[in-house]
Amino acid sequence: MANEDVDLELGDTKEGGSKMMIIIIAVVVLLAGAGGAMFFMKLGPFAEPEAEVVEGAEGAQESSEVAATEAVPKGPAIYHSMEEAMVVNLSDTGRPKYLRVRIQFMMFDEMVIEDLDLHMPVLKNDLYSLIGDKTSKEMRSSADKNLLRQEVLDKVKEILLERTGKEGVEDIFFDIFVIQ
User: Fold this and answer.
1) CA distance 40 to 61
2) DSSP tally for the chain: helices H, then strands E
């Protein structure tokens, strides 16, 4: 009977030790994650490029001019939309597929709106050709849509530069994008 009264609860310290070990491992994992994030932000692909050091008087003048043009704010963005969405036949085989897309143009100069409106027939014609060469499979992911967006922007800038002597449009956005 005397042996029954003596019951030491050693299991609690063993369980408490495993809880402490889990907490320590969690802290180590969090610190490792934070260290990895810092590495990628400071040294990895997301790091901001450092200013390029240019030697000589001419290089110093050129780099200060570049810095001055980058530092000057362009003013508020101005958006101009196509009046109607474009419906484009895609190059899919089998059942015909269509893309309904409307483009918003972003610029910083109101005069570019007049240039866009004046040359809209040329823009639409070239965009029909550019987009019509694509298949619906080439436009499913976000990366594919961003690639198309960049191609459209490059085409718009090319046409405006050719027709007006300035690119004018800074960016484009799809505000309607439906594949059927």
Assistant:
1) 33
2) 6, 4
Q: Nearest-CA neighbor of 145 among 107, 109, 175? A: 175
Instruction: Give me the sign of the Cα torsion angle 148, 152, 153, 155.
Output: positive
**Quick one: tokens of 16?**
């408490």
Task: Give residues with Cβ within 8 angstroms of 84, minimum separation 6.
Answer: 102
Q: Say whether 87 sits in a helix, a strand or coil.
A: strand
Cβ atoms of 102 and 88 closer than 8 Å: no
Q: Which residues of 98-130 are buried (b: 16+ CB within 10 A; e: fewer)?
A: ebebbbebebeeeebeebbeebeeebeebbeee
Q: What is the pLDDT of residues 21-80, one digit of tens each?
A: 888 998 888 787 777 777 666 665 555 555 444 444 444 444 444 444 454 457 899 999
Total-model pTM: 0.59
CA atoms within 13 A on the CB side of 139: 25
Going along the chain from its start, the domains and CATH numbers come out as 11-71 (no CATH), 78-179 (3.30.479.30)
Closest of 84, 19, 67 to residue 27, by C-alpha: 19
Determine contact, residues 108/170, Cβ cutoff 8 Å.
yes
